[in-house]
From TrEMBL:
UniProt organism field: Echeneis naucrates (Live sharksucker)
Catalytic activity: beta-nicotinamide D-ribonucleotide + ATP + H(+) = diphosphate + NAD(+); nicotinate beta-D-ribonucleotide + ATP + H(+) = deamido-NAD(+) + diphosphate
Subunit structure: Homohexamer. Interacts with ADPRT/PARP1.
Entry protein name: Nicotinamide-nucleotide adenylyltransferase
Pathway assignment: Cofactor biosynthesis; NAD(+) biosynthesis; deamido-NAD(+) from nicotinate D-ribonucleotide: step 1/1; Cofactor biosynthesis; NAD(+) biosynthesis; NAD(+) from nicotinamide D-ribonucleotide: step 1/1
PANTHER family, A to Z: NICOTINAMIDE MONONUCLEOTIDE ADENYLYLTRANSFERASE, NICOTINAMIDE_NICOTINIC ACID MONONUCLEOTIDE ADENYLYLTRANSFERASE 1
Cofactor(s) needed by this chain: Mg(2+); Zn(2+)
Entry's Gene Ontology BP terms: NAD+ biosynthetic process
Gene Ontology cellular component list: nucleus
Length: 274
């Protein structure tokens, strides 16, 4: 928190990005405006973290292509970045673990910058003083806050049996916080009202209303591409060019993982791929 009580925030978006669309990029802009408009936050960075191939979602093409498309989509942004850590893991990684990883990176980066102008013992004392808690994932008074950025469908997926561990949901909304963009067909306020844990942490959940309803979805983009229909202006030109050059989406790619159980469902139900 700075002297005026404004907390720096880093927004982390996890998802398939198969492929990245203009709406994924809009999410960041909408969230930044909303959070900064409150007068309580200053959004300093956005991170896109494409899920790894181990997620096993139907039609999920290789992470290297999804990463490259995300990089092309963000090359003109001065604050949205792409991170490959999650997608490079050999197995699917729970979102809570991905958030923890990025929070630790933020703390390490901050400790490095403190190193530059502070003698070691002073820095150590300051770090000790600045921890709110003594648990393994501490919150620091002067450090940036990391928030998960998602669409309301992801928030509502918290209610799908065997998809999320309860302790992960509690950690995400309790310790970090959520910036959630409304999506047609979803009612995040009602969903929060009906969940005790989300209700308890409602002050950490920022619902951001998208007044210019935008129905772009990666599923729609893949479908249109398979049918040879134009997807121009639904995603950045550079991404479209890359898709065409590498011939990425086809009937065959859409069948990837068609007979495989989604990784979280496999992990929490002990289900197996057939
Ligand atoms: N039109 C949209 N409005 C609000 N949130 C969105 C929209 N499109 C994507 N998101 C959000 O973007 C994040 C990444 O989602 P994802 O990669 O699944 O995109 P998607 O368009 O939903 O793709 P798919 O159709 O393959 O599920 C999620 O948090 C999702 O809720
Ligand atoms: N238990 C969990 O941590 C859990 C469960 C389901 C999806 N997710 C994440 O949510 C995102 C959802 O992406 P999709 O909407 O493309 O399926 C992915 O990043 C995925 O890893 C996390
Ligand atoms: Zn989705």
């Amino acid at each position: 928190m700075d002297p005026l009580g404004v907390t720096p925030v880093v927004l982390l978006a996890c998802g398939s990005f198969n492929p990245i669309t203009n709406m994924h990029l809009r999410m960041f802009e909408l969230a930044r405006d909303h959070l900064e408009d409150s007068g309580r936050y200053r959004v300093v960075k956005g991170i896109i973290s494409p899920v790894g191939d181990g997620y096993k979602k139907k039609g999920l093409i290789e992470a290297c292509h999804r990463l490259q498309m995300a990089r092309l989509a963000t090359e003109n942004s001065d604050w949205i970045t792409v991170d490959s850590w999650e997608s490079l893991q050999s197995e699917w990684v729970e979102t809570a673990k991905v958030i923890r990883h990025h929070y630790e990176e933020l703390l390490a980066a901050q400790a490095d910058s403190n190193d530059v102008d502070t003698v070691k013992h002073t820095k150590k004392r300051r770090m000790d003083e600045n921890y709110f808690e003594s648990s393994s994932h501490q919150k620091r008074r002067d450090g940036p806050q990391l928030m998960l950025l998602c669409g309301a469908d992801v928030l509502e997926s918290f209610g799908v049996p065997n998809l999320w561990r309860q302790e992960d949901i509690t950690e995400i909304v309790g310790r970090y916080g959520l910036a959630c963009i409304t999506r047609s067909g979803c009612d995040p306020h009602k969903f929060i009202h009906q969940s005790d844990v989300l209700w308890r942490h409602r002050k950490n959940i920022h619902i951001i209303h998208e007044w210019v309803a935008n129905e772009i979805s990666a599923t729609h983009v893949r479908r249109a591409l398979r049918r040879g229909r134009s997807v121009r202006y639904l995603l950045p030109d550079a991404v479209l060019q890359y898709i065409q050059e590498c011939d990425l989406y086809s009937d065959v790619s859409e069948q990837k993982n068609a007979d495989v159980v989604l990784a979280p469902l496999q992990r929490y139900t002990g289900g197996s791929s057939s």
